[in-house]
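To close the chapter, one final illustration. This time we ask the reader to focus less on the individual chains and more on the assembly as a whole: which components sit near each other, and how the overall shape emerges from the parts.
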Amino acid sequence: MASTLSQLGRFLEPALLILVSLAGRPKHGYAIMEEIEGRWDVRLGPGTLYAALARLEKRGLVEPVDTDDRKRPYRLTPAGSEALATQLGQLKEVAATGLQRLGIT
Amino acid sequence: MKWLVWLYPQRWRKRYGRELEAMMEQTSPTLRIMFDLVAGALDARLNSQLTSEGVVVHNPLTRTPAVLPQAIMLPGLAFLAAAVLKYGFGQGFLFDPLEGFFSNDLVEFITVLSPVVALLLSAAALFEVRLERREDFWSGTITVRRRYGHVVAFVISAALTLTFAGYFITENYVYARTG
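The assembled structure is written out below.
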Protein backbone atom coordinates (compact mmCIF):
# COMPACT_ATOMS: atom_id res chain seq x y z
CA MET A 1 0.00 0.00 0.00
CA ALA A 2 2.95 2.29 0.50
CA SER A 3 3.33 2.35 -3.26
CA THR A 4 -0.21 3.81 -3.55
CA LEU A 5 0.92 6.92 -1.71
CA SER A 6 4.37 6.95 -3.33
CA GLN A 7 2.67 7.33 -6.71
CA LEU A 8 1.45 10.75 -5.61
CA GLY A 9 4.88 12.28 -6.29
CA ARG A 10 5.02 15.91 -5.16
CA PHE A 11 1.59 15.53 -3.56
CA LEU A 12 2.83 12.83 -1.18
CA GLU A 13 3.44 15.22 1.72
CA PRO A 14 0.11 17.12 1.47
CA ALA A 15 -1.70 13.79 0.98
CA LEU A 16 -0.06 12.31 4.05
CA LEU A 17 -1.04 15.34 6.16
CA ILE A 18 -4.61 15.14 4.85
CA LEU A 19 -4.86 11.44 5.67
CA VAL A 20 -3.54 12.04 9.20
CA SER A 21 -6.02 14.88 9.63
CA LEU A 22 -8.91 12.68 8.47
CA ALA A 23 -7.78 9.78 10.68
CA GLY A 24 -9.44 11.50 13.64
CA ARG A 25 -12.85 12.18 12.11
CA PRO A 26 -14.38 13.33 8.82
CA LYS A 27 -13.55 16.94 7.95
CA HIS A 28 -14.27 19.37 5.14
CA GLY A 29 -11.56 21.13 3.18
CA TYR A 30 -11.24 24.25 5.31
CA ALA A 31 -11.13 22.24 8.56
CA ILE A 32 -8.37 20.05 7.13
CA MET A 33 -6.40 23.12 6.09
CA GLU A 34 -6.82 24.76 9.49
CA GLU A 35 -5.75 21.67 11.41
CA ILE A 36 -2.67 21.15 9.25
CA GLU A 37 -1.62 24.76 9.69
CA GLY A 38 -2.43 24.88 13.40
CA ARG A 39 -0.84 21.57 14.31
CA TRP A 40 2.16 21.29 11.98
CA ASP A 41 2.58 24.87 10.79
CA VAL A 42 2.24 23.78 7.16
CA ARG A 43 0.17 26.15 5.03
CA LEU A 44 -1.59 24.21 2.30
CA GLY A 45 -3.20 26.44 -0.27
CA PRO A 46 -6.73 25.54 -1.51
CA GLY A 47 -5.33 24.57 -4.92
CA THR A 48 -2.81 22.16 -3.42
CA LEU A 49 -5.33 20.78 -0.92
CA TYR A 50 -7.90 19.94 -3.58
CA ALA A 51 -5.27 18.61 -6.00
CA ALA A 52 -4.18 16.16 -3.27
CA LEU A 53 -7.77 15.37 -2.22
CA ALA A 54 -8.77 14.60 -5.82
CA ARG A 55 -5.83 12.20 -6.12
CA LEU A 56 -6.69 10.50 -2.84
CA GLU A 57 -10.33 10.14 -3.87
CA LYS A 58 -9.35 8.82 -7.29
CA ARG A 59 -7.29 6.10 -5.60
CA GLY A 60 -10.09 5.23 -3.19
CA LEU A 61 -8.19 6.34 -0.10
CA VAL A 62 -10.75 8.97 0.96
CA GLU A 63 -14.43 9.37 0.16
CA PRO A 64 -16.89 12.23 0.47
CA VAL A 65 -19.59 12.05 3.11
CA ASP A 66 -23.11 12.54 1.73
CA THR A 67 -24.34 16.02 2.57
CA ASP A 68 -26.24 18.91 1.04
CA ASP A 69 -23.82 21.35 2.60
CA ARG A 70 -21.41 23.09 0.25
CA LYS A 71 -18.65 22.20 2.71
CA ARG A 72 -18.52 18.51 1.93
CA PRO A 73 -16.66 16.45 4.54
CA TYR A 74 -14.29 13.62 3.62
CA ARG A 75 -13.43 10.48 5.54
CA LEU A 76 -10.80 7.77 5.27
CA THR A 77 -11.72 4.55 3.51
CA PRO A 78 -10.39 1.20 4.84
CA ALA A 79 -7.82 1.29 2.01
CA GLY A 80 -6.86 4.80 3.11
CA SER A 81 -6.38 3.70 6.72
CA GLU A 82 -4.20 0.83 5.58
CA ALA A 83 -2.10 3.00 3.27
CA LEU A 84 -1.66 5.58 6.02
CA ALA A 85 -0.62 2.93 8.56
CA THR A 86 1.96 1.50 6.16
CA GLN A 87 3.37 4.93 5.32
CA LEU A 88 3.56 6.01 8.96
CA GLY A 89 5.26 2.72 9.84
CA GLN A 90 7.96 3.44 7.27
CA LEU A 91 8.34 7.02 8.46
CA LYS A 92 8.63 5.78 12.05
CA GLU A 93 11.47 3.52 11.04
CA VAL A 94 13.19 6.36 9.17
CA ALA A 95 12.72 8.68 12.17
CA ALA A 96 14.05 6.05 14.61
CA THR A 97 17.14 5.46 12.49
CA GLY A 98 17.81 9.17 12.13
CA LEU A 99 17.34 9.88 15.82
CA GLN A 100 19.52 6.94 16.78
CA ARG A 101 22.36 8.10 14.51
CA LEU A 102 22.09 11.60 15.95
CA GLY A 103 22.33 10.08 19.43
CA ILE A 104 19.02 11.58 20.44
CA THR A 105 17.32 8.37 21.56
CA MET B 1 -11.21 35.66 -5.59
CA LYS B 2 -13.88 33.06 -6.38
CA TRP B 3 -13.46 33.85 -10.06
CA LEU B 4 -10.23 31.83 -9.96
CA VAL B 5 -12.36 28.67 -9.70
CA TRP B 6 -13.35 29.32 -13.32
CA LEU B 7 -9.78 28.56 -14.35
CA TYR B 8 -10.45 24.90 -13.51
CA PRO B 9 -11.85 22.52 -16.14
CA GLN B 10 -15.64 22.28 -16.29
CA ARG B 11 -15.87 18.71 -14.96
CA TRP B 12 -13.51 19.52 -12.13
CA ARG B 13 -15.68 22.52 -11.18
CA LYS B 14 -18.77 20.33 -11.32
CA ARG B 15 -17.21 17.93 -8.82
CA TYR B 16 -15.23 20.23 -6.51
CA GLY B 17 -16.22 23.78 -7.48
CA ARG B 18 -18.86 24.41 -4.79
CA GLU B 19 -16.59 23.08 -2.04
CA LEU B 20 -13.67 25.15 -3.23
CA GLU B 21 -15.81 28.28 -3.42
CA ALA B 22 -17.13 27.67 0.10
CA MET B 23 -13.58 27.25 1.31
CA MET B 24 -12.41 30.43 -0.35
CA GLU B 25 -15.18 32.41 1.33
CA GLN B 26 -13.40 31.64 4.60
CA THR B 27 -9.89 32.27 3.27
CA SER B 28 -8.23 35.67 3.12
CA PRO B 29 -7.16 36.48 -0.41
CA THR B 30 -3.38 36.66 -0.67
CA LEU B 31 -1.00 36.52 -3.59
CA ARG B 32 0.26 33.13 -2.37
CA ILE B 33 -3.25 31.66 -2.41
CA MET B 34 -4.00 33.12 -5.83
CA PHE B 35 -0.82 31.60 -7.20
CA ASP B 36 -1.69 28.28 -5.53
CA LEU B 37 -5.11 28.26 -7.20
CA VAL B 38 -3.66 29.07 -10.61
CA ALA B 39 -1.15 26.21 -10.17
CA GLY B 40 -4.01 23.94 -9.01
CA ALA B 41 -6.09 24.82 -12.09
CA LEU B 42 -3.13 24.09 -14.35
CA ASP B 43 -2.60 20.77 -12.56
CA ALA B 44 -6.30 19.88 -12.97
CA ARG B 45 -6.10 20.61 -16.69
CA LEU B 46 -2.91 18.61 -17.18
CA ASN B 47 -4.03 15.68 -15.03
CA SER B 48 -7.46 15.26 -16.52
CA GLN B 49 -7.82 11.66 -15.28
CA LEU B 50 -8.66 13.15 -11.87
CA THR B 51 -12.08 14.10 -13.17
CA SER B 52 -12.11 11.85 -16.25
CA GLU B 53 -12.03 14.81 -18.54
CA GLY B 54 -9.72 15.04 -21.47
CA VAL B 55 -7.41 17.93 -22.14
CA VAL B 56 -8.89 19.60 -25.16
CA VAL B 57 -6.40 21.46 -27.24
CA HIS B 58 -8.55 24.51 -27.78
CA ASN B 59 -7.90 26.79 -30.65
CA PRO B 60 -9.58 30.15 -31.02
CA LEU B 61 -10.11 29.58 -34.74
CA THR B 62 -12.88 27.00 -34.41
CA ARG B 63 -15.54 29.67 -34.88
CA THR B 64 -13.95 31.19 -37.96
CA PRO B 65 -16.68 31.70 -40.60
CA ALA B 66 -16.16 29.59 -43.72
CA VAL B 67 -16.18 32.68 -45.89
CA LEU B 68 -12.79 33.74 -44.48
CA PRO B 69 -10.65 30.83 -45.78
CA GLN B 70 -12.74 30.87 -48.96
CA ALA B 71 -11.89 34.57 -49.50
CA ILE B 72 -8.24 34.12 -48.55
CA MET B 73 -7.64 31.39 -51.12
CA LEU B 74 -9.18 33.45 -53.96
CA PRO B 75 -5.88 35.01 -55.19
CA GLY B 76 -4.33 31.55 -55.51
CA LEU B 77 -7.45 30.19 -57.20
CA ALA B 78 -7.60 33.16 -59.60
CA PHE B 79 -3.93 32.76 -60.48
CA LEU B 80 -4.26 29.03 -61.15
CA ALA B 81 -7.42 29.47 -63.19
CA ALA B 82 -5.81 32.24 -65.25
CA ALA B 83 -2.64 30.17 -65.79
CA VAL B 84 -4.56 27.05 -66.83
CA LEU B 85 -6.71 29.04 -69.26
CA LYS B 86 -3.65 30.72 -70.74
CA TYR B 87 -1.21 27.83 -70.98
CA GLY B 88 -3.67 24.95 -71.20
CA PHE B 89 -6.27 26.39 -73.52
CA GLY B 90 -4.56 29.41 -75.06
CA GLN B 91 -7.08 31.81 -73.53
CA GLY B 92 -5.13 34.70 -72.09
CA PHE B 93 -8.04 37.07 -71.39
CA LEU B 94 -7.68 36.53 -67.66
CA PHE B 95 -3.94 36.03 -67.37
CA ASP B 96 -2.66 38.74 -69.72
CA PRO B 97 -4.15 41.76 -67.95
CA LEU B 98 -2.86 40.43 -64.65
CA GLU B 99 0.59 39.31 -65.83
CA GLY B 100 2.33 42.49 -64.71
CA PHE B 101 0.51 42.31 -61.43
CA PHE B 102 1.44 38.65 -60.80
CA SER B 103 5.08 39.22 -61.71
CA ASN B 104 5.48 41.45 -58.65
CA ASP B 105 7.43 39.43 -56.02
CA LEU B 106 5.19 40.39 -53.12
CA VAL B 107 1.99 39.63 -55.02
CA GLU B 108 3.47 36.31 -56.16
CA PHE B 109 4.36 35.44 -52.58
CA ILE B 110 0.86 36.34 -51.32
CA THR B 111 -0.76 34.40 -54.17
CA VAL B 112 1.22 31.26 -53.43
CA LEU B 113 0.82 31.62 -49.67
CA SER B 114 -2.95 32.29 -49.74
CA PRO B 115 -4.04 28.64 -50.18
CA VAL B 116 -1.69 27.57 -47.38
CA VAL B 117 -3.25 30.10 -44.99
CA ALA B 118 -6.76 29.09 -46.12
CA LEU B 119 -5.84 25.42 -45.62
CA LEU B 120 -4.64 26.04 -42.05
CA LEU B 121 -7.70 28.16 -41.18
CA SER B 122 -10.20 25.64 -42.53
CA ALA B 123 -8.33 22.74 -40.88
CA ALA B 124 -8.45 24.58 -37.54
CA ALA B 125 -12.20 25.06 -37.92
CA LEU B 126 -12.83 21.46 -38.98
CA PHE B 127 -10.68 19.44 -36.61
CA GLU B 128 -10.72 19.28 -32.82
CA VAL B 129 -7.86 17.50 -31.10
CA ARG B 130 -8.46 15.97 -27.68
CA LEU B 131 -5.56 14.66 -25.66
CA GLU B 132 -6.09 12.73 -22.46
CA ARG B 133 -3.37 11.80 -20.04
CA ARG B 134 -3.93 8.53 -18.26
CA GLU B 135 -1.73 6.91 -15.63
CA ASP B 136 1.28 6.31 -17.83
CA PHE B 137 0.32 7.20 -21.39
CA TRP B 138 -1.46 9.78 -23.51
CA SER B 139 -4.42 8.99 -25.71
CA GLY B 140 -5.91 11.26 -28.30
CA THR B 141 -8.92 11.64 -30.55
CA ILE B 142 -9.47 13.86 -33.54
CA THR B 143 -13.03 15.01 -34.14
CA VAL B 144 -14.04 16.30 -37.55
CA ARG B 145 -16.87 18.81 -37.54
CA ARG B 146 -19.52 18.66 -40.22
CA ARG B 147 -19.11 22.17 -41.59
CA TYR B 148 -19.54 21.99 -45.32
CA GLY B 149 -18.32 25.51 -46.11
CA HIS B 150 -15.02 24.69 -44.43
CA VAL B 151 -14.83 21.30 -46.12
CA VAL B 152 -15.08 23.04 -49.50
CA ALA B 153 -12.37 25.55 -48.48
CA PHE B 154 -10.20 22.74 -47.09
CA VAL B 155 -10.41 20.56 -50.22
CA ILE B 156 -9.84 23.41 -52.70
CA SER B 157 -7.04 25.02 -50.69
CA ALA B 158 -5.36 21.60 -50.22
CA ALA B 159 -5.54 20.99 -53.98
CA LEU B 160 -4.13 24.47 -54.67
CA THR B 161 -1.35 23.99 -52.12
CA LEU B 162 -0.38 20.64 -53.66
CA THR B 163 -0.49 22.13 -57.16
CA PHE B 164 1.75 25.04 -56.21
CA ALA B 165 4.10 22.75 -54.28
CA GLY B 166 4.26 20.37 -57.26
CA TYR B 167 4.92 23.29 -59.60
CA PHE B 168 7.64 24.65 -57.33
CA ILE B 169 9.39 21.27 -57.08
CA THR B 170 9.12 20.64 -60.81
CA GLU B 171 10.43 24.11 -61.72
CA ASN B 172 13.29 24.19 -59.26
CA TYR B 173 14.46 20.60 -59.08
CA VAL B 174 13.19 18.49 -62.01
CA TYR B 175 13.68 21.03 -64.82
CA ALA B 176 16.77 22.47 -63.18
CA ARG B 177 18.37 19.01 -63.11
CA THR B 178 17.35 18.02 -66.64
CA GLY B 179 18.16 21.47 -67.99
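The beta strands of chain B are 55-57, 127-133, 138-144. The first strand of chain B starts at residue 55 and ends at 57. With these observations in hand, you are ready for the problems at the end of the chapter.
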